[in-house]
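[step 3/7] fold_predict: job queued, chain A
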Amino acid sequence: MTEFESGWKAVLADSRWRPAAPYLHMNELRSESRKSPFSVANGWNGIRRKRLISDVVEYLETLDKARSRVFVCGVDVDAVKKREASGIKVASPVRFCTHFCPHYVMAWFAREYPGIVSEAHFYFDRSEPFFYDFHALRKTMESNLFEFSGNREAWQLVKSITETNMIGAPALQVADLLAWGTVRQTLAPPTAFLKEIAVIVKRVIPSSWSRWDDSNLHEATVPQ
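[step 4/7] structure written:
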């Protein structure tokens, strides 16, 4: 277990001011179902749920800033549909993310740690559509013998693509927090629960965020 994983699990297990959390999954944290580990029957309420998020954010703030970075890619689904309705062929929102995020990550590694990175490993939660699209895109990019921009070489760094259960994968739990918070920041009303959580995480960890919408979709070249 890595230092990050052991630290994350220790924070979740801290029951001094709230019940211990077995893992972090935002939809379950907000669920009213008695089956949720964060149910009222298990001792949770709004204050204690916020305390859990506060605890994990404080932990993220302690990470080595030189070795930690989050990457977020957002796509305006309505903007994609609008362009498609006008007869313009556009890659799916899933393909936008599977195409751009790996390049952001690998470009950061190449810039910050030149000559050190020789392989990359990607992990996805079970049943994520991104997992299957990432597999398909990898085959497309690796087989393009006429690609001279460096994309093919970047994809050849990808040595494994693994589907796993986020319950036992702290890094996927952080990704879930960011994804949930990013959507909430865009769509939720101003008074919504944890409306600004994505902004807060962005402040405590170095981050790269991109958003594709009406203003820049026309600039994107994405394999379809």
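[step 5/7] annotate
Residues 93-112 form the longest helix (20 residues).
The CA atoms of residues 56 and 110 lie 29 Å apart.
exit 0
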